[in-house]
Amino acid sequence: MSILVYTENWDGKFKKLSFELVSYATGIAEMLNTTVTAVSIGKVDENELRKLGNFGANKIISINNDQLIALDSQSYTSVISEITQKEGAEVIIISNNNTGKALAPRLSVRLKAGIGSGVSRLPLNLNPFTVYKKVFSGNGYAHVVLKSDVKIITLAQNSFDLVETLNNTVIENVELTIDGSSLKTAVKDVQKQTGKILLTDAEIVVSGGRGMKSPDNWGPIEELAGLLGAATACSRPVSDEGWRPIGEHTGQTGKVIAPNLYIAVGISGAIQHLAGISGSKCIVAINTDKDAPIFEAADYGIVGDAFKVLPKLIEAVKEMKS
Amino acid sequence: MKILVCISNVPDTTTKIKFAEGNTLIDTTGIQWVINPWDELSLTRALELKDDAASGIKSVTVLHVGTATSEPTIRKALAIGADDAIRVNAESSDSWFVAFQIAEVVKKEQFDIIMCGIESSDYNGSVVGGMISEFLGIPSVSAVSGIRIENGQPVMTREIDGGKEVVTVPVPFVAIVQKGIAKEPRIAAMRGIMMARSKPVKLVEPVAVEPLTEIVVFEKPTPRAACKYIDADNPAQLIDLLQNEAKVI
Ligand SMILES: Cc1cc2nc3c(=O)[nH]c(=O)nc-3n(C[C@H](O)[C@H](O)[C@H](O)COP(=O)(O)OP(=O)(O)OC[C@H]3O[C@@H](n4cnc5c(N)ncnc54)[C@H](O)[C@@H]3O)c2cc1C
Ligand SMILES: Nc1ncnc2c1ncn2[C@@H]1O[C@H](COP(=O)(O)O)[C@@H](O)[C@H]1O
Fold this sequence. Notes:
The structure holds 2 protein chains of 2 kinds. Chain A is α/β, with parallel strands linked by helices. Chain A contains 9 helices and 18 strands. In chain A, the strands form 4 sheets. Chain A has a 7-stranded parallel beta sheet with strand order 7-11-6-1-4-5-12, with helices on both faces. A 5-stranded parallel beta sheet of chain A has the order 15-14-16-17-18. In chain A, strands 8-9-10 form a 3-stranded antiparallel beta sheet, with no helix packed on it. In chain A, helix 5 (219-228) runs parallel beside helix 9 (306-321). Chain A is globular and about 60 Å long. By secondary structure, chain B is an alpha/beta fold. Chain B has one domain: HUPs (Rossmann fold), CATH 3.40.50.620. Chain B has helices at residues 37-51, 71-80, 95-109, 128-136, 190-196, 235-244; strands at residues 2-6, 9-11, 19-20, 25-26, 33-35, 59-66, 84-89, 113-117, 140-150, 153-160, 163-168, 173-177, 201-204, 213-219, 228-229. In chain B, the strands form 3 sheets. Chain B has a 9-stranded mixed beta sheet with strand order 11-10-9-12-8-1-6-7-13, with helices on both faces. In chain B, strands 2-5 form a two-stranded antiparallel sheet. Chain B has a two-stranded antiparallel ribbon with strand order 3-4. In chain B, strand 9 and strand 10 form a beta hairpin. In chain B, helix 2 (71-80) crosses helix 5 (190-196) and helix 3 crosses helix 4. Chain B is globular, with a radius of gyration of 21 Å. Chains A and B meet through helix 3, helix 4, strand 7, strand 9 and strand 10 of A and helix 3, helix 4, strand 9, strand 10 and strand 11 of B. Strand 10 of chain A pairs antiparallel with strand 14 (213-219) of chain B. The complex binds flavin-adenine dinucleotide (FAD) and adenosine monophosphate. Residues 209-211, 235-238, 251-254, 266-268, 270, 272-273, 276, 286-289, 292, 305-307 of chain A line the site of flavin-adenine dinucleotide (FAD). Adenosine monophosphate (AMP) binds next to helix 1, strand 6, helix 3, strand 8 and helix 4 of chain B.
């Protein structure tokens, strides 16, 4: 019996969500009095693998196979479900991001395991096994009972704090041979930016809306983000207009993020926008309209013109840093 | 080639959701039901592909698992331009149940591309598309933000961390779509609404299968504390609060 965690890395370094997943799994393992096994697919060195142990992983299964560089949902599902069975895992923890959304439902069918998706707390109850998940894009939460023997939880990003729990960790390098004909996904082209902060991983996000008036006005947003080590984001019309890349659009139909700090500049705060950001720990709004709905969601607000406020804010951050 | 677009029926995204019966049910009074936004975009893209004769797409069918109360949503999909529709006549009890029913239909009807949205805006499951593909043992591509047909082969763009990939998989497969798949949802024109009345909606009875999950109770989110306002001339105070009160920078 154990809890299995599917971790993810980016260019050989674990994403923050991997440590969150392991912290969360360790929390469940304590409730169930069992151990945590983390699975890592990709080229990750031993030093990096050991970091999972700092958050409570008892065992790390590392698979480094060139055939598994691109995500092929069927072969990944086979690999993870075989490990699940070999480890006798009772609960599988995956992120609720794109990768998790690709794999969790396939694993569910393969293992006849009920899924709780977008879960943001430890199980409310073990018998019956009850999880707490977001519904209606954040306008409600549901207590969901998973009735199957094996259970899958996809954890909402940034919803669970990192908890350091030192454990003696064993690393197991697993060699796999995969029948090439079972790999169905052919990658024709890749466009990847490296070195940028991933929006879904960012602790701080500075976001601009239609109130910024034109794509030429993004200088101060980028400068502020740069100073704070933040990622940049935007509202849907801004990306629809092509002012910003589509990967920056947050909201119900864009990315759902939950950073520690979300700064919304010139964003009205439509319900569909809030659906993507309401999980943020702290929300700051800068808007000329004191009645804009964003202020209902915000912790701190400045009623004012972004073009006057941002330069002053940037000065204040520079001062803080010096 | 034939496309199947799976559509779910959800409250309009601006609806204020209320719960009833001791928070065990959704209070449906006054709710406007619509095609799930993702599915509306999938349908739009499927129809765009069919409009291009060179694509080889011959038909676009919509499928919904739900009771007769979702008929208007199905009619709307037909009015937008789907050729025909299938409704599995059952309460959609959980994702496992829904995906199982859809897979059963696909086994009998043969489609080349099965399109699902990344999530239903009601229960935010994000699982039905992936489950269908695994029930059928066929490939799935998720986070699809673009699809075109090149020499008879569907070619997809999918989002990955910090970028995009262009991928192909053999048909039949499930495409799980997200932002970018189509720009604006296609709107039903008067002619489409008239024609929808005579388009076929095939009724299929469900296959018995036990759901694996059950929602026992709902909760409203805890309201946020009131916003603290800072003078527009003094943003330095904001930085101070973020540093010393909220402790987020
Ligand atoms: C099905 C559906 C899904 C959707 N999904 C999303 C989604 O995922 N994400 C999303 O963002 N939207 C989404 N939308 C759109 C959403 O309803 C809003 O239209 C959108 O969020 C508005 O973007 P905005 O706040 O940038 O623009 P606006 O609503 O136009 O707001 C601009 C704001 O800027 C302020 N402003 C103007 N000038 C200044 C200035 N100089 N300084 C400071 N403030 C200024 C204005 O007071 C105003 O509040 C969706 C809509 C639908 C129907
Ligand atoms: N009752 C349903 N009938 C048909 N398709 C559905 C149904 N529920 C979900 N889907 C499809 O599955 C996608 C993801 O839904 P979900 O997994 O419920 O978030 C939706 O965008 C639809 O394409």
